[in-house]
Fold these 3 entries.
Entry 1:
Amino acid sequence: MCVRVCAAVALLVFFPGSLALDLLRATATSGDPLSIPKVHCRCSSYPNGALCSWSQPAASPPTHYIATYRERHGHSSTKMCNITSSGSSSAFPDSEQHWHCHLPNLKLLTDYIINITAVHSGGSSNFLASFMLEDIVKPDPPVDVRVSHHKSRNLLVEWSPPPTWASQHIFPLKYQILYQWEHKGSSKSVNLGPFENTKIELKGLIPGRAYQFQVCARELLGLGHCSSWSSPVNIIIPRTKA
Ligand SMILES: *[C@@H]1O[C@H](CO)[C@@H](O)[C@H](O)[C@H]1NC(C)=O
Ligand SMILES: *[C@@H]1O[C@H](CO)[C@@H](O)[C@H](O)[C@H]1NC(C)=O
């Protein structure tokens, strides 16, 4: 039994994209570690709760999930987490199915335990992890990124905060800018920031060169992680006429 459990844990500790979830235990009674849900939790609007997600492999048997959470310390009650699904549809029955559960009204600076159990005809699997809301903060990317020419060779980069970040006035965001270009076959990049403004003027860029701009957003005091990069915006600075 221990061999089985340890193998499952080793498989799961480094799963990608995980945000500071502290895995406590992962078990599969059927002996198939792949049936253990790989759960990722994220807070995209501090302090408005978290969304935990996992996917179900296309080939897995019909599975029913139970998701609960509770405070790690003290005697608070265990709460059920409402589960919704997306992904697999009748048009693509073989695609992965994604499951989500929303944890509203979490206390700040408090350790929580999330317990996800997958029940299928071959047995059941369980995923138990601990997290604190502050560690899993990751806003959605900024939107509406615009790059325009400004005073001859300068560029003005502007963007809007992610609309899903609801408490902009209480928990402001800061931003980083990444711009990239190709030079003699190799790709170069510059990372600027953080900025509290939602625009910045850049000087000294090279006329005729194609630049790609992206922006990410992070909670101002540095909670959690920067968002994913926004979709790239491309611009070429015109050569000044001779
Ligand atoms: C779960 O769904 C029920 C019914 O839609 C709702 O009353 C309840 O507040 C929801 N619970 C959570 C934790 O979202
Ligand atoms: C996790 O949830 C399952 C299903 O509700 C339950 O049987 C199990 O005891 C729970 N584990 C912990 C450690 O709370």
Entry 2:
Amino acid sequence: MTIRHNFYSDTQTRPSRAMLETALEAEVGDEQGGLDPTTAALESRVAELLGMEAAVFLPSGTMCNEIAINVHCQPGDEVICHRHSHIIGYETGGPAAMSGVMVHPLDGANGQFSAAEMAGALRPASRYSPRSRLVSAEQTANLAGGTVWPVAQLEAVAEAARAAGLASHMDGARLLNAAVASVRPAKDHAGTFDSAWIDLTKGLGCAVGAVLAGSREFIQGAWRVKQRIGGGMRQSGVLAAMGLYALDHCVERLADDHKLAAEIASRLAEMPLVAGMCPVETNIIIFDLVEDGPDAEAAAARLLAEGVRVSVFGPRRLRVVTHMDVGPSDAEALIAAFARLTK
Ligand SMILES: *Cc1c(COP(=O)(O)O)cnc(C)c1O
């Protein structure tokens, strides 16, 4: 089946020709030796963007999360995060397998929790308890529908963590969506955290890469783990050049993705087959289907038969994501195909 309208994820974007052309011109060197100038330029650009001292280029966002956990924690420590975090659900048990840590999942509306809720999860200093060591916040909260943590709440969580002797980490896979949606610079969101990263392969449209930022000391630790797990690269400037291109050309336009998502959401919300929807604040629409209609698998299959790809997030739950490779005409196709679904 040819997919003509791909709302599966913002990871599905293809690098544009203009983006690919920057790779041809990139000045390159041996990245492991710190000799790739384009990678170094991307790292300082992202460090500055996130209000951090230093940064390191990595192959993926998952590696950013897993390295950060490894640097911040010792085996037996505990990581406090939302129950629906990527680090719990989608990293193959990495926190346990790679770092020997436990996760302490919190509930909370919109994929978020307050400083008080975090404080309630802190373990007493006792020989019996794991050591509460790290708090992680996901901006935007993917499984909650791309919701945006308010900056004040992020600051409060990071401050409360620091006061209690914990480090703080931000999974910023879609932090730039949050920055654009909230009209607050990314550093306002991330700057109070000890580490944070952005993905280049989601809304920014790159083919490969993510950048993890933090203090100089944290990044030195991150480099040791990166090298250990084979994440050191060579002429990575060809990839970093595309990241720099994306930061120049693909950030502001995230507002278009948000606008399109809001339009799709308001149209879907009126459909009789739609039972409910997560708040739509950025480029993600997560919604539930009514009980007496097709389930999520059946609905997704029928949409796919019409060339429209969406993703299944539960027995009756679908996710639609907007990104640079879908526009208003794709949205029309999605709405029309959805309207043809009947009970
Ligand atoms: C995609 C994603 C990741 C992982 O990023 P990859 O680059 O795919 O490894 C982590 N956290 C969140 C919230 C994500 O959406």
Entry 3:
Amino acid sequence: MIDKDILLKNYTTIVDAMNNAQDKHKACLLAVSKGQSIEKISLLLAHGHRFFGENRIQEIQKKWPELRQSHANIELHLIGSLQTNKVEDAVALCDVIEVVDRESLVDALAKAEHKLNIKRQYYVQVNVGEETQKSGVALQGLASLMHYCQSKQLQVIGLMCIPPEGVSPSPYFALMKKLQRHYGLPKLSMGMSSDFAQALALGTSQVRIGTALFGERDL
Ligand SMILES: *Cc1c(COP(=O)(O)O)cnc(C)c1O
């Protein structure tokens, strides 16, 4: 059983914290529903929330066609790394793709947009901590990738990052804010359950929150 009261209380607590942190440019809450049941997601949809993030194409295929049938105006973001062979499904199923990090992926996305005759919106994911195991474009490759996206007519609206674990995320968030300004982008996607307060303080436009909202993942 899911406890509806707990979920809606978490939601209110997070939205209040967001409103208190930023008075002028309010950030959006991307509800990260990976590993969460249709029942829990439906509770948020019934509450009026429309803004969700998932990280696996297979899971999106299982959960979202049904949910989209019963609720209009859902905006689904892909926030997990994307293999080139899944790109067409990603463009078909997701409104916004936040994980653009290499030229081969840009090529595949542009091709899928053309084939399906759909335009999507994108974030470039930055490996802001320069960690070998993490996805995201290296800082030194960002300018060239931004340029490449433009040459392929992908509509890049922002930057996304997952900062290194175990150290303060704030210097990384501050750097991301600087990069967002440098490229004149409207959006910035940073801050998760454990560090969204810091991301809000440094001017993110969107936080991506899973467990602090839904509880532990159960799928
Ligand atoms: C899972 C995930 C989140 C949410 O993580 P929580 O710690 O559950 O809030 C945010 N962003 C990305 C890219 C994720 O994969």
